[in-house]
Amino acid sequence: MFTNHAAQNDTKRTIESHMKMTMIESIRRW
Question: Origin, by domain of life (predicted)?
């Protein structure tokens, strides 16, 4: 059984990693 808190932490982790990937790609394009 998944808890709502765990789901929120997992989503936050995914968003943070996605933002890091976007920043890295932006830097490479410069």
Answer: Eukaryota
